[in-house]
Design the sequence.
């Protein structure tokens, strides 16, 4: 029997008054949504999917798996990951340090933002036991040394930049990372003061080409050769992709692993311990976002969430497409062959709050219907703002039957 409350518990309440029950639900998403009749955007999370993704990395990747907290800092996501065996977390701010330390007190934390405030470094080191810090400039190395009072137990990671990767959705090397010759100098400077020295890289988010990791390993080998120092760990970063509508079929995760390991062997780096920093690949498939249609103008649907809320990636910058499914308010079934392309408009008064899609939905969709937007576990919750006071969203947890 499904753990579903009746819609009467939601009746006659404003969106701010809706309080979702703490227990988990079972059954079909459409049945749960119609029973709850949510007024706010509603996140639906399947923790088992996070655990399954974590298990894949822990069993197939030949090194330490470090979750990129920024991707989804949800309490349930972090605790599920830790229980599944992920024991290390990439944190990018003192707020994330505090959060993960509270939720997973025994986890190892890697402070992997290349530019940090002195106060954040000092608190992370002195209060929260963080020893691992990334840097991509000599100034940052000096800052870390000063803020930790010349500590002798630092684990230092030099972030190197990579050539532009056209197969990645977003290229990170335009903002982060030292150029190869600078990275070599940084390794030389860090080696005498680091109890553990690492070199890290990132091929870019949502990288669909395993060969990008091969090219990155080759650049790393050149940096190491130029530095003439040994490292204790190589961090190959994140970027491992998940499948979205309209994208080419993805290679299996094992292809990425095999490419990395073979590239390391070819460069005679296969004895160096490895790390990776997945984010999207661990959480994207574990969350759906349910929105309500508030109005329709032809093929433009006005919905109650948008680019200032949980659909930032669907907007102009990334233009991500997502699988969608209508949940009719009256339970009417719609035929798949009647699907047509729609655009979305978010609820704010800003005209750039638009999402071109196309999002494939039934031709007879009407105001009051809900739309389940799938694969929303990555960045959606983390990027929400409260512009126009439309930021509030609710969340429920689903369990497998």
Sequence:
């Amino acid at each position: 029997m499904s753990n579903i409350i009746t819609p009467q518990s939601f009746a006659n309440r404003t969106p701010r008054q809706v309080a979702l029950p703490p227990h988990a639900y079972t059954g079909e998403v459409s049945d749960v949504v119609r029973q709850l009749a949510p007024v706010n955007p509603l996140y639906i999370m399947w923790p088992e999917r996070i655990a399954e993704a974590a298990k894949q990395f822990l069993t197939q990747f030949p090194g330490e798996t470090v979750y990129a907290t920024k991707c989804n800092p949800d309490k349930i996501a972090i605790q599920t990951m830790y229980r599944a065996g992920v024991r290390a977390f990439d944190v990018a701010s003192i707020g994330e340090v505090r959060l993960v330390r509270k939720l997973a007190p025994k986890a190892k934390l890697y402070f992997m933002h290349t530019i940090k405030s002195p106060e954040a470094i000092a608190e992370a080191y002195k209060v929260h036991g963080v020893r691992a810090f990334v840097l991509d400039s000599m100034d940052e190395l000096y800052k870390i040394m000063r803020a930790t009072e010349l500590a002798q137990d630092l684990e230092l990671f030099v972030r190197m930049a990579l050539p532009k990767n056209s197969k990645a959705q977003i290229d990170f090397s335009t903002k982060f990372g030292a150029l190869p010759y600078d990275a070599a100098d940084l390794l030389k400077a860090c080696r005498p003061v680091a109890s553990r020295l690492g070199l890290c890289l990132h091929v870019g988010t949502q990288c669909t080409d395993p060969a990008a990791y091969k090219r990155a390993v080759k650049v790393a080998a050149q940096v190491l050769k130029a530095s003439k120092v040994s490292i204790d760990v190589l961090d190959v970063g994140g970027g491992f992709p998940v499948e979205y509508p309209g994208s080419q079929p993805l290679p299996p995760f094992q292809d990425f692993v095999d490419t990395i390991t073979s590239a390391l062997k070819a460069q005679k780096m296969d004895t160096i311990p490895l790390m990776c920093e997945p984010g999207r690949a661990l959480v994207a498939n574990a969350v759906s976002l349910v929105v309500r249609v508030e109005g329709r103008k032809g093929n433009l649907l006005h919905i109650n969430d948008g680019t200032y809320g949980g659909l930032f990636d669907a907007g102009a910058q990334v233009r991500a497409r997502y699988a969608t499914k209508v949940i009719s308010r009256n339970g009417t079934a719609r035929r798949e062959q009647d699907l047509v392309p729609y655009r979305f408009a978010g609820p704010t008064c800003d005209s750039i709050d638009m999402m071109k899609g196309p999002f494939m939905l039934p031709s007879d969709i009407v105001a009051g219907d809900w739309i389940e937007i799938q694969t929303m576990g990555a960045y959606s919750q983390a990027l929400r703002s409260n512009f126009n006071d439309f930021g509030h969203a609710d969340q429920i947890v689903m369990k497998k039957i």
